[in-house]
Task: structure prediction
Amino acid sequence: MAVSENRNGPSVDLQVAEQAYARGDLQFAGHTCSQCLSKNPEDVEALLLMAKVLMDTEKSPLALALSEKITKLAPKDWRGWLLRGMCETSLLPGSPMGSMHKAESLAPDNPAILRSMAFAYVSSFDFKKAESYARRAIPLENHPQGHVALGFALLHTERWGEGWDEYAHGMGHQAFREKQDWGIPEWNGEKGRLLVYGEQGLGDQIAYCSTLRDANVTQLVCHPKLKAMFTETLDCEVHGDQFKKEIDWPVRADFAVSMSGLQRWHRRKREDFTGEPYLVPHPGKQFQWKALLRALGKRPKIGIAWTGGTVGAHGWYSRNITLMDLKPIIEGVDADFISLEYKDRSEEIDASGLTVHDFPWGTQTDNYEDTIALISCLDAVVCVPTTAYHAAGALGVPAIVMVHDTPHFHECTPWWKSVQFLDRKGDYITKVLERLRQCVSLSESTPVVP
Result:
């Protein structure tokens, strides 16, 4: 049994903390939980809530320590084992499932456990089990997490039609997927003009917007960094107002749909993914980059990126490597290497002793059009899963993506013809070098337009 400060129910402080958590005020919920625990450090209800606050504020290591304490204090309470399992699968190698299975043994057919296990199996790349647990959870509780876990499992295994349908349940319930109300109906495939609005990161939006050419889109709302780039490329009205609560322009569309929602109607099977590039770089900026890169010499120019993702996003913790991991590649190819890192990595570059050209005015700006123009002038790109490979694919530039152990479904989706994926297993560096030489050889055979 869980132990609480008041055997007649949660204390008043804990009730206040629970109410704050329910309305999303995590800072106040955590502060009030701390007050509860200062009075009784073994108040399991307060520990449970504090662990959830820590998880939601990206402090999973601390949440794991608390959940371990909870399972010792209340070994028959499934909630503690579930929280512990969620932390373990996100932090520990191999995504251990022991604690989650312990929770399941204490509360069989509990939908909260089943949908959490479905998500954990997605993270461990076991999509058969993920799908099984999600399909068990959904009839018991129509919760977004169960649907999204099923969506991930289906998208990872190239069942895009049903996958997009299930993935759509996450809008408004997942980080970076805020559902917007534009005062017009949500689109469900009807004829009419569309307002498409952004969600998730830059790479996701570049991939999703490859679909816009197939739809009747009159207005696009995207990340502010992408506004100039999409304006240069797309034949629609573009607004970089993804994060604004109010807009100062009139809505001229019949229906609204998120970027991933648009895929439900246009990317339901493999043949729907054309893989064709569609981005148009700014001609003036492209001309400047060509001149600068030409000044470095006649060797091929290869872009590299070794970090990616947003903290808390699916698969984030395993998609980053170090610059030194790329040393055999940088020293193994006769080429000039250009950093495509979107954050300041100058200290790491200097400490490595490797010759990597870094142009922060082109990669760390608030206008991704600068980076697009740079990538359009490269012979190839080598990177971890990050925005750079979507940009390369959308430009038709060859890219080799070193995929981590728990890739996002984007790395299983044929968005781009010019992009190839390679598992980071065994002697993968040798394979990267072989493929890179092939890419560079192909690009060298094509005259570069001055």
Observations:
- Residues 30 and 50 are 6 Å apart (CA to CA).
- Confidence is low (pLDDT under 50) at residues 1-7, 444-450.
- The beta strands are 194-197, 217-221, 237-239, 255-258, 301-305, 336-339, 380-383, 399-403, 419-423.
- DSSP finds 20 helices and nine strands in the chain.
